[in-house]
Write a structure and sequence with these properties.
Layout lengths: L1 E4 L5 H11 L6 H7 L6 E8 L2 E11 L2 E12 L8 H15 L4 E7 L4 H9 L3 E4 L7 H4 L2 E7 L15 H12 L7
Length: 183
């Protein structure tokens, strides 16, 4: 398994893989931001040999420079149940450590997402519900935060700090023009 950075040359393909994995959602704005070196976003296609097996990304929230956030992570149907997801997640964690992050975090839907929830828990992530009055989208979309320490220190829980979910949904709407975009 290896990762290939999303570039101007493969962004269209990356968006098609993302649409396959997350129908009705759009990562295009995130992918475009990652093309700017100073954005703090890094997105990759996951390959097994010559075949694209999925997508994965790393970004940070400026208010929390100690945490690497896993973004737009998914394994295509034909590549599942082969431990590629766990291998890609481990590679993400190694990348985060090499970039100086102390914690790995992600958010995901709380509803109809039992497989993903079990996957993150099996990979050592602690789950907590996300609620933040300054982020109105969390009232509409039930969201979970998963966290894991990457250093030899106790985990600092997220405790409802703002993940800017509302801003992410607005980015998706820019490309979908759909008020029903899910996060």
């Amino acid at each position: 398994m290896h990762l290939e950075r999303i570039t101007e040359n493969n962004i269209g393909f990356a968006v098609s893989v993302q649409n396959e994995l997350f129908p009705g959602e759009s990562a295009r704005a995130n992918y475009e931001e990652s093309l700017v070196d100073s954005s703090g976003y890094e997105y990759f296609l996951i390959y097994e040999g010559d075949d694209c097996a999925g997508i994965i990304g790393l970004y940070c929230i400026p208010e929390d420079p100690d945490s690497a956030w896993l973004g737009w992570f998914g394994i295509r149907e034909g590549f599942r149940r082969r431990h590629l997801g766990s291998a890609a997640l481990k590679q993400f964690e190694k990348m985060a450590i090499s970039e100086g992050y102390r914690f790995s975090r992600l958010y995901t839907d709380a509803l109809s997402n039992d497989v993903a929830i079990a996957f993150y828990q099996a990979n050592g992530y602690f789950c907590e519900p996300y609620m933040n009055q300054e982020d109105p989208a969390c009232m509409q979309y039930k969201t979970l935060i998963f966290s894991k320490t990457l250093a030899d220190e106790p985990l600092i829980l997220w405790n409802g700090r703002n993940i800017h979910l509302t801003e992410q949904i607005e980015k998706q709407r820019k490309y979908h023009g759909d008020s029903q975009v899910q996060s």
